[in-house]
Automatic annotation (TrEMBL):
Cited Gene3D superfamilies: NADP-dependent oxidoreductase domain
Native organism: Ideonella lacteola
SUPFAM superfamilies associated with the record: NAD(P)-linked oxidoreductase
Ranges where the NADP-dependent oxidoreductase domain occurs: 14-288
InterPro entries, A to Z: AKR (IPR020471), AKR_Detox_Biosynth (IPR050523), NAD(P)_OxRdtase_dom_sf (IPR036812), NADP_OxRdtase_dom (IPR023210)
Protein name: Aldo/keto reductase
Length: 296
């Protein structure tokens, strides 16, 4: 277990992502086995969003907690809100848009609590930056949810440095969950991880394997990265998955990757990264392969 920020939420060093849980065709027993398999491997934190699976994934996960309620106290639940999708699951939504109003955040939390079959959310994130976000209103809403014991900690997802700074100035945020991988390095260079290091608020990382593009994308950058990572991985005796996770965890902001695979063997490869510390030479070889040039 590790602290997300000083004297804050304790969570696992790797997070189990539930985004695709609804695509795997698991029955409730298989879902329970997947959850328990992650717990056994030390992934005690599970990442959700209300919209995942067309508003279905939280309910699929919650069915397991209803069947095996003892699991809840062995885990931390992260979820997100602020995106409104249109469709049968939310017939009242007229437009696909963002909404960070107090009414929508509170309604989303109530839905998530009901779907997940739990009495509290450990960490709530605003899913995407909302151009109409009133920072004072969001902060007041977060305080209300914390006071009511429904949400214990708060953060953001996909926020720019300025957007995170604005909301953090009203209420302490624990993390900014952003995309990063050897094929997507924007957060390394746009100040996101510098801010995280300054605030000692560890970032969470979604798509650490570039959504699978690291293994199959037909682009010059992907080909270069695969070749270099294959050579380094062979020398170190680790898989590309292990190497990619270790590459991210080498960053001094100490990011926490979200890994979501139906195969627990793939999770084992991610867990192996916890024992691997890349030297700067290997780290920058992968950076150079992605950018297509050496450092200036």
């Amino acid at each position: 277990m590790t602290n997300l920020s000083p004297a804050s939420l304790q969570m696992s060093a790797l997070v189990a992502g539930a985004w695709r849980l609804g695509d795997w065709g698991f029955d409730v027993g298989q879902r329970q086995a997947w959850i328990e398999g992650n717990l056994e491997r030390g992934l005690t934190t599970f990442d959700h969003a209300d919209i995942y699976g067309g508003y279905r994934v939280e309910g699929l996960f919650g069915e397991v907690l209803a069947q095996a309620p003892g699991l809840r106290d062995r885990m931390q639940l992260v979820t997100k809100c602020g995106i409104k999708l249109t469709g049968p699951a939310r017939p009242a939504h007229e437009t696909h848009c963002y909404d960070t109003s107090a009414a929508h955040i509170i309604a989303s939390v109530e839905n998530s609590l009901r779907e997940l079959r739990t009495d509290r959310i450990d960490l709530l994130l605003i899913h995407r930056p909302d151009a109409l976000m009133d920072a004072d209103e969001v902060a007041a809403t977060f305080e209300r949810l914390r006071r009511d014991g429904k949400v214990l900690h708060f953060g953001a997802s996909n926020f720019t440095v300025q957007q995170f700074e604005l909301l953090h100035s009203r209420i302490a945020l624990e993390t900014n969950q952003v995309e990063c991988s050897p094929l997507q390095m924007g957060a390394i260079h746009d100040g996101t991880f510098d801010q995280a290091q300054r605030l000692r608020a560890r970032p969470m990382i979604w798509s650490p394997l570039a959504g699978g593009r690291l293994f199959n994308e037909d682009s010059p950058a992907a080909h270069r990265v695969r070749w270099v990572m294959g050579e380094i991985g062979a020398r170190l005796g680790v898989s590309t998955t292990t190497l990619a996770i270790a590459w991210l965890m080498r960053l001094p902001s100490r990011p926490i990757p979200v890994v979501g695979s139906r195969r627990l063997s793939a999770t084992d490869e991610a867990v192996a990264a916890l024992k691997l510390t890349l030297n700067p030479d290997d780290w920058y070889r992968i950076w150079s392969a992605s950018t297509g040039h050496e450092v200036p």
